[in-house]
Amino acid sequence: MRFRVKMQALLDAWSYLSKVVVMRTATSSDGVEVTAEGDTLILVHSDRETGVRVRIPQVEILEEGRAFFQLKSLIDSTKEFKKESFIEISTKESSQVEDKLTVYSKLEGGASGAMNGSVHSIINLFDYVDDEELQTLVVPQRVLKRGLTNTFFALSSGVKPQNLALYAVFVEIESGSIKFLATSLNHFATYTFTNQETNGISTKLKIPQRSAGILEGMLKDIHDSDATISFNEGLLRIDTDDFSFVTRQKDEEYPDFQNMRIPTDTAREIIISRSSLYEGASYANNYVGQKGLAGIITIKDNRCYLAVEDSNGGCSARYNMECTAMFEGEYTVGCRFDIITTACSRVESQDINILFPEIPGQPAYFYPTQNSEENVLFEQILATSAIPHKVKAIPEEDVHASESER
Q1: Rounded to 10 degrees, what is the CA torsion of 258, 347, 216, 79?
Q2: Torsion of CA 313, 315, 320, 325, to 10 degrees
């Protein structure tokens, strides 16, 4: 094998390939399979669970072939050279050791190097998926990007569930809608796209946590760019103009998410400014984080009080703001302010509806007051400690008011 290619093209390809940190085992190695064919380079970084493939077109192929070697080492050794420089890579098979070869590299300017490689890669997951009969669906790339971004955080930032089947981002595709779901013991987030063309396909996909994180990091939130989803019961492949991604789906049975929802008919609902709630929760969380104190929310007379309970049962800090309460009387519940700030940063509307549970121990339910411009409905269930507290009154001069009250 022998070819000439711009360093910039290899760097662009590596920006995707490097997202897969190959899990090294006795049957896998952290190398890249490079195939020179026609006028195209095909690069694959894969293990038995997930993989990325990038094609570089319009390459000067002097001799077709295939090799498996450490592309990262080659790139690291050429960082000081200009990205516009061309590099020539060639291979020579060993006459003494079967399946081994030497990879030679030569940059414009005279720099050269050599490394060991092999004729074949140990594992290439694309070899499995390319031979399978798959269903396909074309969707905007930003649908996948935003769906994963706004649900994956719930899995990655929360307390891990004991049920291994939940270590995934789930995608429900039905007529006209695509819904993403992820959960931990602290969060349950869904992000639904409506008015989508699904070609009559109805299915449920299970993207493992590791694969979902890799894919989310590679996708782009841009207009006029599509992604092709190809799948069967066990495998999933995503193709864009820049890369192809493949993963095995979770083996476990698809969870029953309906059991995770709270009764909304008995919940206590408020509407509150997202920016005010974020500011107040961030302020209160500074006290909680420093001292390990309990967080408390109190709703009374269309006011929302975020309080931090001190060791004596009183308040060491309090932040209050306006809200619209859909119920009468006073309501107090324990909470985690770090989870509230996370919820506020994920919701896109100006105001947030919050459904607080009637029964202590159940989660609170956050969702935007308005849908976004792209007919996106975002909804999030937010688990709290949900243990009622009695909040002591504190002197007015010690109360930290929101900007609108100063």
Answers
A1: -160
A2: 0
342-369 burial, b if ≥16 CB within 10 A, otherwise e?
bbbebbeeebbbbbbbeeeebbbbbbbe
Contact 221, 240 (CB under 8 A): no
Element (H, E) at 239: strand 235-239
Token pair, residue 73, equals: 């080492």
Residue type, 46: S
Q: Is 165 exposed, middle or buried (0-12, 13-18, 19+ CB in 10 A)?
A: middle
To the nearest 10 degrees (0 to 180), the angle between helices 337-346 and 274-291 is 150
- Identity of the amino acid at 211: S
Amino acid (1-letter code) at residue 388: P
Per-residue pLDDT of the chain (406 residues; tens, 9 = 90+): 999 999 999 999 999 999 987 765 444 456 899 999 999 999 999 988 999 999 999 999 999 999 999 998 888 887 766 778 899 999 998 888 878 899 999 988 767 889 998 887 667 889 888 778 899 999 999 999 989 988 888 787 656 667 777 889 999 999 888 999 888 766 778 888 887 889 899 999 999 999 999 999 999 988 789 999 999 989 999 999 999 999 999 887 777 776 656 566 777 899 999 999 999 999 888 877 655 566 888 899 999 988 887 666 666 678 889 999 999 988 888 777 877 887 788 777 788 888 887 776 667 777 777 654 444 444 444 444 334 444 444 444 444 444 334 3
Contact between 74 and 105 under an 8 Å Cβ cutoff? The reply is yes
User: Are 220 and 213 contacting, i.e. CB atoms less than 8 angstroms apart?
Assistant: no
Q: CA 348, CA 51: separation in Å to the nearest integer? A: 32
SS3 (DSSP) at 280: helix
Q: Tokens 């955080």 appear where? A: 153
Q: What is the pTM of this model?
A: 0.81
